[in-house]
Amino acid sequence: MLSVKTKYGLKALIFIAKRESNTPVQISSIAKSENISHKYLESILLTLRKAGFLSSKKGKGGGYYLLKDPKQIMMVDVMRSLEGPIAMVPCVSLNFYEKCKDCIDETSCSVHRLMIEVRDSTLKIFNNKSLYDLV
Amino acid sequence: MLSVKTKYGLKALIFIAKRESNTPVQISSIAKSENISHKYLESILLTLRKAGFLSSKKGKGGGYYLLKDPKQIMMVDVMRSLEGPIAMVPCVSLNFYEKCKDCIDETSCSVHRLMIEVRDSTLKIFNNKSLYDLV
DNA sequence: AATTAACCTATATACCCGATAGGGTATTAA
DNA sequence: TTAATACCCTATCGGGTATATAGGTTAATT
Questions:
Q1: Is the pLDDT of residue B101 over 80?
Q2: Which of A55, A100, B68, B103 lies 20 to 30 Å from A108 when distance is taken between CA atoms?
Q3: Nearest CB to B89: which of A7, A122, A135?
Q4: Per-residue model confidence (pLDDT) at position A92
Q5: Is B77 in contact with B62 (CB distance < 8 Å)?
Q6: Which among B117, B103, B23, B125 is positioned nearest to B64, based on CA atoms?
Q7: What is the DSSP code string of B113-133?
């Protein structure tokens, strides 16, 4: 299941990308338009800024703006910073790998193999989908 | 993320299906071999029985056994009974649909469209994968 | 009748997510 | 220089959910 955090983050990115010019957008403006708690959105945008998708400007007339071209912002990267692993189990995650406690041999685990298949098919989508494609 | 419950359930099904004959397998036998808490596994197998994948036999020599041919047990059904929705968001779920609170128009929601794509690619795998394929 | 093993209900425990509080700091406009 | 604006950061809370356990009940076998 997609966390609310990720959903909000995606909506915020889309909202920012949809604007004609890349002028700063205030948090409150996004929060209002997308029905998101202001404070919670604040922390999400912070994550996106630290991940390098957004930058911000303080003071009057400040806000958040895209740091890269929407065509360069790939879903796979956004998902990983907001949601974490793409994979359904840590033992098949490329970026967040973790060994199963209960599993002795990964290569002989049927669940493992099945989840690799699912991971790859999902990756295929996220790898080829940019923010531009969503807007 | 796949819940531990689903993972255990899948492992149990695979364990049962791997046997030559379809004689009853005791919970403790599965629990021991797969490193799963006996009591927790008990409740999972109960779910699988109620879902129609397994049947059980009480008393000495009792246990759980497959009710259908492994080729007839599709992953999509197993996943839905153990994990619930296949989709990443309720608003694109076929069997567990729920409207978004924050979303006014589904058809114009970019997240919605993206998640439909992911759902379909995952469904494609689970629809065509049987327990037999895993074993 | 005794034993075995599934069945059922209830409860404990731990963890995580979404949300909020409350202040700090940088920038801008006047 | 001052006030207003808006981002920045840490801490914490409340509620829900997932995992796990406990203890007794029922049914089948020997």
A1: no
A2: B68
A3: A7
A4: 94
A5: no
A6: B23
A7: HHHHHHHHHHHHHHHT-BHHH
